[in-house]
Amino acid sequence: MENIGGDDFESFVAARSGALLRYAYVLTGDQHRAEDLVQSALASCYRHWRRIRAADAERYVRKAVLNAHLSWWRRPMRTRETSVGDVAQTADLRMADPGVDSALVIRDEIWQALTTLPPRQRAVVVLRYYEDLSENEVAARMDVAIGTVKSQHKKAMRTLELRLRQPSSTDEPELTGGTR
Amino acid sequence: MNLLEDDLRQALHAEARRIDAPYELSGWIGSEVRRQRRRNGVVGAVLAIGAALAVSLVAMPLINADLDATYVAGPPDAQSGLLPWEPVGPLTEDAAQMESAVDAWRTLAPEAARPEGDVFALFGGRSSIFVDTAAVGSETVFLQAVVESGARQVVLLQRADASGAWSVVQTSDLADASAVKALVAPRGAIASEPERAAAAPAALLLSPSSRQKVDTYTPVGGSPDDVVITSKRLSTPGWELDASVGDGAWEPIDRSVSGYTAELNRGTVANYPASLAVRSPEGPYARGTIAEIADSSSLLALATGVVVVEVTPDGSELGSVGTGLKLAGLLGWPTDELTITDLGSSGAGTFGPGGGRPRSMGAVALERPGAGARIGAVMTGPEGVVDCWSSKPMPDAGDDALLITACHVKGKVTKTGRQLESTEIIGQVDASQFGLRTSDIDLVVDIERADGSVNRWRLGSAYGGSTRGGIIDDAGARVTGYTFRAVTSVDGPRQVLATWTWPGAQ
Q1: Does B364 sit within 8 Å of A1, measured CB to CB?
Q2: Which of A41-50, A58-67, B321-330 bottoms out in mean pLDDT, i.e. has the lowest?
Q3: What CA–CA distances, in Å, run from B301 to A13, B356, B471?
Q4: Is A100's pLDDT higher than 70?
Q5: How many other CB atoms sit within 10 Å of the CB of residue A174?
Q6: Pick from B170, B151, B167, B148: which is nearest to B159 by CA?
Q7: Do B49 and B55 form a contact (C-beta atoms < 8 A)?
Q8: Cβ contact B312–A47 (<8 Å)
Q9: What is the dihedral of CA B93, B99, B104, B106, to 10 degrees?
Q10: Which of A36, A42, A107 is the closest to B10 by Cβ?
Q11: Beta bridge partners of residue B455, listed in sequence order
Q12: How much of chain A exceeds pLDDT 90, in percent?
């Protein structure tokens, strides 16, 4: 086999695959899709590795992961794999163990709320608060105008605040067959 | 920084920390290779294989086309997290040789050198690597389970042949391997063989991470009607998972399930060869096929595209759409591509005998583009009150809700209005005639697809619990019919109380 990328690529994967996977996971909310994204990005980058490594490899691969994520959403539905994310279990957490750490519940609620965001809004949130990028850096990473980043960020935060303000189903004293 | 931003950071980083699976690189790279091979043909495959092998060689040196030895993994490297695989013996399926390999492993990694929580795995045999898919060739051999038998731990090495049958090819006693916490097969397996039952209780721990996976595996030659199940976190310490295969005895497979970390993760099952049961410290909680268990207490979506539909008796239309949106969010589906469908009706007594109550009832479904047939079911109390969603007793129906009605309902509610197209009651059963309440009854539905496959789902208890009243199958396969069965959910052999089919005899 031709060693296209050489040892650098192998070292990079060895050192960074875990971090890349975690990054993809917070983007997608689904570990299995995250694995797919990372492997696609790595496979894509591998063939151009000599060129990539001259630049910032980590940034390049992360951008590839992001692009793969956003392009996945742009695919026709019929061509997508339907990946299965974690199911919200906040209700279970509370009902099964009333003494559960409230911080854990809050974290879980936030995570569930994040799953409701459209992919671009979620990407902005992840880049801002997981990657700790500035708005300018987010715009560069996503190849969009900074105004777009600001608007997407604002919408995302508004959505999250609204969702987190809503009582969960387990907060309802009586469910008479559910509410719609 | 406001509170939300701070919480966001914490939540994102906390969730990210839960993902720690570099050891799986080889598996999913391998999957991608196969996908690209199918998609791109030979040229694409060569490129993909080249890339994948390079990555695989880094991620797990075991993944090598020239596999010629049995390997054992030591503790993960502290920096890379990778498992330092070491060849410990010849590639073999011979029990004696494998025993020697294990002995060699003991020599290489003496007990004292294994810190608590390390991960070890042992592979052997032809085509032994990509156990995460069915495309592994005609024969697969891999480390299948650590069996706890008293104070002993036993490693079972098992093989699935082309017919999908499993057999134990090696049982190795790792009497001192108390540090063995997990078996690293990229995707685990729950296999069927009498030897395993004899060796029970078994522990099947498949992930060294905080999220312990119990993945199922479609043996080579298994049915193509795979069902991918979703995650289920068990919340209560002390809960356990049991497993059985076919009519085999129930046996615990994971005694370490506790806290918030354990989950059933997605996997594949062919015709439900394996079953799981979830037990609380107080006793049985749920028992059934993997799909049933995964489906037992939460909103659920399946990679096959089957979506659970909730049936609710009350509330605003906006709420219906809201439920759909909530589901869509959980599924990660883009809401702008969805049709949110309400399979229910407005007004009185559509479903219930005697006119029912002046309230709306029905199901809300999500329909994705290209969806197949929709299926809805409603269950009613004595006055036509639907109760398929509440997790608490429904005051209106009290404990007297005895009548179960199964309907085929068709309709649509979009964001602008509700349109019930038709309702067809396909059967009713009065639980009291069996001396039961609706809470003692579960509904199970078999969806028949045009390709002849059948998917079975448990809709949940007919009363109370986290139930739901219907399903939608949009896997692209046309649904040609379905069969509801009302079965007892009380302990003991399940008794089928009633069977309803749609379409009926035609």
Answers
A1: no
A2: B321-330
A3: 32, 31, 10
A4: no
A5: 9
A6: B167
A7: no
A8: no
A9: 130
A10: A107
A11: B447
A12: 14
User: By C-alpha distance, which of B311, B335, B361 is closest to B463?
Assistant: B311
B325 close contact with A: CB closer than 8 A: yes
For residue A4, the 8-state DSSP code is S
How is B4-68 classified by DSSP, letter by letter?
HHHHHHHHHHHHHHT---GGGHHHHHHHHHHHHHHHHHHHHHHHHHHHHHHHHHHH-TT--TT--
Q: Give the nearest partner residue to B54 out of A31, A46, A118, using CB atoms.
A: A46
Question: Which residue in chain A has the smallest CA separation from B378?
Answer: A177
Give the containing element (helix H, strand E) for B325: helix B317-331
In Å, how far is A141's CA from the nearest CA of chain B? 19
C-alpha pair distances (Å), B382 with each of A21, B357, B406, B462, B470? 52, 11, 14, 13, 20
pLDDT, tens digit, for every residue of A25-44? 889 887 667 776 777 777 67
Q: Give the pTM.
A: 0.33
Cα nearest neighbour of B51 on chain A:
A43
Nearest to B187 by CA among B152, B149, B151, B226: B226
Going by pLDDT thresholds of 50, 70 and 90, the confidence category of residue B29 is: very low
Strands B454-461 and B403-414: unpaired
Nearest chain A residue (CA) to B302: A84
Distance between CA atoms of residues B436 and B377, nearest Å: 20
Q: Per mean pLDDT, which range of A46-55, A96-105, B189-198, B423-432 is the poorest?
A: B189-198
Whether residue B368 lies within 8 A of chain A, CB to CB, comes out as yes
The whole-angstrom distance between B317's CA and the closest CA on chain A is 6
Q: Return the number of other C-beta atoms located less than 10 Å from residue B453's C-beta.
A: 17
Side chain identity, residue B304: T
